[in-house]
Amino acid sequence: TAAMVGNFAAGGAAINALAGAAGLDLRVIALDLDRPTADFTIAAAMDETECLAALAAGAAVVEPGLHLLVVGEMGIGNSTAAAALCARSYGGSPAQWAGPGTGVDAGGIARKVAVVERALAFHADAPDTPFEILRRLGGREIAGVAGAVLEARRLRIPVVLDGFISCAALAPLAAAVPAITDHCLAGHCSAEPGHIRLLEHLGLDPLLSLGMRLGEGSGAALAVSVIRAALATHNGMATFAQAGVADGL
Q: Is the CB of residue 55 less than 8 Å from the CB of residue 147?
């Protein structure tokens, strides 16, 4: 994770190229990369203070006056945490939520399912509040996304969500308050099998479906070009009346 975040900061990752192509101002927020979260099969991933700090770090990035917030994340192995968040928030078996991530084989998926099963069993008696679910089963980068999206909602800034992990950051909140995603667009539907199921729960239709599984905010960055095109058409295209086109056509 630290190496990948370093590559973002150095400008050498796919998201750097895609953000530049889409005209986006890319900001990389490193969240305690030298201090891993706890093993969530035997403890809460974060204590209350750690989770609040990650939420606040995400919120701090969102400045008043932004036209659009595009969120992405980087965390090696975090599709497992995302699967656990979704299973706890929306039900269903871990096998319905855990997928290949960046491309693990069937054995790897089986291990992910087993990890999620152990985590859900360990936290079975924990409170069902969004904060408790997030801090017990999420990671700092996931909490950071949640904090940014919540702050954007407070400031009335629209949001473009990336893939499975970015959307899973909202699962505990959206399960409790479905309208929490009313200011959000799903940039794309990734190749992770649980993503389409999650988007259905969130009530979001993806702008793109290209079989992507890179993460980093890459699918959301690509979707921004579609959003720009839609705005240009809406703002610049003449109506039939303005163009002198007969109503009968």
A: yes
Report the run of H or E that residue 223 belongs to, with start and end: helix 218-236
Contacts for 155 with CB less than 8 Å, ≥ 6 apart = 62, 64, 66
* E strand map for 53-194: 69-70, 159-161, 184-188
Three-state secondary structure call for residue 208: strand
This prediction has a pTM of 0.94
Q: How many CB atoms lie within 10 A of CB 210?
A: 14
* Integer-rounded Cα radius of gyration of the chain: 19
Question: What gap in Å lies between CA 103 and CA 168, rounded to an integer?
Answer: 19
Are 133 and 172 in contact by the 8 Å Cβ rule? The answer is yes
Task: Assign 239 to helix, strand or coil.
Answer: coil
Q: Specify the CATH class of 2-230 in words.
A: alpha beta
Residues ≥6 apart with Cβ < 8 Å to 119: 40, 41, 84, 137
Q: Which two tokens stand for residue 215?
A: 């993460």
Q: Write out the catalytic residue numbers.
A: 216
Q: How far is CA 54 from the centre of its chain?
A: 15
Give per-residue pLDDT as tens, 128-148: 999 999 999 999 999 999 999
CB 54 within 8 A of CB 114: no
H/E run at residue 27 = none
Cβ contacts of 101 within 8 Å, gap of 6 or more: 77, 79, 80, 108, 112, 192, 213
The pLDDT of residue 55 is: 98
Look at residue 177 and tell me whether its pLDDT is greater than 80: yes
